[in-house]
Amino acid sequence: MTEAYDFRRIEEKWQRIWTDREVFTVQEDAVKTKYYCLEMYPYPSGRIHMGHVRNYSIVDVIARFKIMKGYNVLHPIGWDAFGMPAENAAIEQGVHPRKWTLDNIENMKSQLKKLGLSYDWTREVNTCLPDYYKWNQWIFLKLYEKGLAFRKESVVNWCPHCQTVLANEQVINDLCWRCDSSVGFKKMEQWYLKITDYAQELLDGLDQLQKWPEHVLTMQKNWIGRSTGAQVTFPLAELEGGIEVFTTRIDTIYGATFMVLSPEHPLTDRLVTEAADREKIRSWITKRSADLNQRSEPGELEKEGIDTGKKAINPFTQQEMPVWVANYVLMEYGTGAIMAVPAHDQRDFEFAQKYGLVIQEVIVPTEETPEEKRTGLFEAYGTVVNSGPFSGLKSQEAMTQMAAYAQEKKFGWEQTLYRLRDWGISRQRYWGTPIPVIYCDSCGVVAVPYDDLPVTLPEEVEFRGEEGSPLETSESFVNTTCPQCQGEARRETDTMDTFFDSSWYYFRYCSPQAMELPFLSEPVRHWMPVNIYVGGVEHAILHLIYARFFCKILRDLGLTEIDEPFPHYLPQGMVIKDGVKMSKSKGNVVDPDEMIAQYGSDALRLFMLFASPPEKEFDWDDKGIEGTYRFLNRLWRFFQKNTDVFAPSDEIPADSTAESPAPLLVKMHQTIKKVTDDIEKRYHLNTAVSSLMEFFNQLKKDSEALKTDPVGRRLMREAMGTLLLLLSPFAPFLSEELRERMGFESLASLSAWPEADAALAREEKVTIVVQVNGKIRDRFEAPRDLPEDQVKQKALELKR
Questions:
Q1: Which H or E run includes 757?
Q2: Hey, which end of the chain has fewer CB within 10 Å, N or C?
Q3: What is the pLDDT of residues 350-393, one digit of tens each?
Q4: What confidence score (pLDDT) does residue 292 get?
Q5: How far apart are CA 597 and CA 603, in angstroms?
Q6: Axis-axis angle for helices 622-641, 592-599 (nearest 10)
């Protein structure tokens, strides 16, 4: 009888062997070329989901391939273990966040091991343990010493559901990135990191990232938001001082007909004297979630303003301009004041129309003559008109000359500003890294001494879901002694944003047992930078900009020499089911454990890799995994049918001189080249799997003729051995099992990757695979040198 494909027994066996032999444990090696292969580490929510399976399967193929190619591969894993869900579980279920998190980690670790992922588990990191977050605190203190960590009062994003502050990057379409609640604003004292000091370097560094997708680079550039322009001072009429504005369009300054201050501008209180107006301004500030929403499009905001009754003087025209306070001007951008040019700015135009303010046109399209009068709004560059000696100039030339004039007359200067804001890291919650600061009535703000680190989280706290940090309920934590004067003092009860943890974890993997520093210089010098980093594009701003920032500050602290941590970033697409992203909230989650129990890990991995290119969205389809499961069963049954050919006892005469049948040999070398290129050059793992299936089909088709001849039997054995090596990164369990049955002593995981014979691999005709949205629709043969436009034409003529 043919032995059944018992994937459960096979997968348990090989997972045990890999663990016992420490197959994927790695050390620095001066001889081999290093390859640091990394995926974004998971949050321990309790169960892995299909997004994890897809991401980690992609990276595992790359890691296993590189091992077989002879590289010294670092492929680590850890846990992004702090965060709100653990605290919510404490409130809702009465489970302490530490227990909830550690229990989840054990469960998820078991799930990941079932998938056969090539992790070096000796390098596992857990950000919620003191041996990790001690170094968060150490880094914070170093930044505090350099003035890069500081405290200030400001208006912050506030999530009423999570009861915590959010960074700007954590607000998506006015909603909390974590819970989708509407985000408001609140005035609070917070701890910040001065990421703005690195704005230009973060922008310049993008030029080094040649292996990042263009749309991700664009997202980073837009978030940093470099603007070049001029800073101009508008003197106040009949009052001391002036109003400074930053403008990128000084060419429109002759069209500035009024000034507008943000409600929080320092001059607002001085210029607004009416009690009713003051009350209205206070109302705007307290209701910023509705009235001063920095994330709304201009057209979405009902603009309101108050005329202060005061005047400013346009330094170019010497004309007086009314000064207003309005809800659409933000203190967070520029100087918190603008010169309003209603003829050439949409927001100013709407405001001027509402309040009957002067609209003065000073820019016209270049194709129009200055005499042709325009009405309405024109925001583009053009020809300057009605602008004294600058009339007739093109916008760019006018900006240069006007900025030079302002500099000469000492009321303006060239300026560069950034949209990027300093990173607020204070969070009003328990489950995070305690900020290592003490407040003393005599000494003020005092840093915790390095020798006293880590400041650990107390176990006894109350989780009530109320405003304020649960740490405030622990008297033993809050009440302490000032390290300077030994007097009574209190600890900071805010904890750090969890993005602090994930901004440097990739360094810790290089030396996770380091005791004297966050990481050791020699291992970091060996492994960094990361060779390929894979993770969701949703982290293109949230995480990647912070990680790049941390790399630079750690460099400036003397801990590393590199400037950019991730020269190659590969964003994987989301897993979609029923037309939407697979998620618990949508009720469309497919449990990986159920799929593994029914089909096995190899079938699940193979399906996730075969169904779509890594960067594309992936539509879950139960029939798809059934298809990859059938393929593995066919391979198993074919092997069983031909064990006499594949078994190690099969002796082939050494002096056989018969010619090898050419088609299978050619197909084998073509497949080696195709799969190698698909993994190494293009990351088209789906077409690599397709090629393996085609190679197996040819082997099966030719087998009846081949096994009648000793040389043919030898070719069958060579082809099967090669197929299993090529399949090993994709379906490692079955590959190991069948190669062992063939008598190979070395593990497939540690065997050398096959090399293609260039002459045999070259085809006069090639198979063109036609895909639509990542799904294979058809294929056709074409001459190797057929021009691309003709290839496309043939593809478009196919009925499917």
A1: none
A2: N
A3: 999 999 999 999 999 987 544 445 556 899 999 999 999 999 99
A4: 34
A5: 11
A6: 30
- Picking from 566, 469, 433, 546, the residue whose alpha carbon sits closest to that of residue 169 is 546
Mean pLDDT of the chain: 91
Residue 641 token pair: 């049918």
Q: Is the overall model pTM greater than 0.85, yes or no?
A: yes
Q: Give 652's pLDDT tier (boundaries 50, 70, 90).
A: very low
Q: pLDDT per residue over 127-158, tens digit each?
A: 999 999 999 999 999 999 999 999 998 777 88
Quickly state the pLDDT bin for 1 (edges 50, 70, 90).
low
For 636-687, give the secondary structure using H, E and C: HHHHHHCHHHHCCCCCCCCCCCCCCCHHHHHHHHHHHHHHHHHHHHHCCHHH
Decide: helix, strand or coil at residue 188. Answer: strand
Whether the CA torsion 574, 575, 578, 584 is positive or negative: it is negative
Q: How many residues does the chain have?
A: 800
Nearest Cα neighbor of 339 from 248, 257, 266, 240 is: 257
Q: Which helix (H) or strand (E) holds 496?
A: strand 495-496
The CA angle 696-697-703, to the nearest 5 degrees, is 85
Give the single-character DSSP code of 434. B
d(CA 715, CA 409): 87
Whether the CA torsion 476, 477, 479, 485 is positive or negative: it is positive
Return the residue matching tokens 């009068």. 373
Beta-bridge mates of residue 243: 234
| Centroid of chain to Cα 427 | 21
Asked whether the predicted pLDDT for residue 701 surpasses 80, the reply is yes
Kindly state the tokens that stand for 430. 């328990």
Beta bridge partners of 440: 444, 489
Whole-angstrom Cα Rg for the chain: 32
Higher-scoring residue by pLDDT: 181, 494: 494
Closest CA to 257 of 333, 311, 327: 311
Q: How confident is the model over 382-440, as pLDDT tens digits?
A: 999 999 999 999 999 999 999 999 999 999 999 999 999 999 999 989 999 999 999 99
Structure tokens that stand for 637 in this block:
């049954």
Separation of alpha carbons 659 and 681, rounded Å: 34
Residue written as tokens 């293609």? 756
Count Cα atoms within 13 angstroms, Cβ side, for 683: 20
CB atoms within 10 A of CB 570: 21
State both tokens at 68.
């077989």
* Distance from C-alpha of 348 to C-alpha of 354, rounded to nearest angstrom: 10
Structure tokens at 94: 């009465």
pLDDT in tens, 381-394: 999 999 999 999 99
Quick one: pLDDT at residue 287?
A: 61
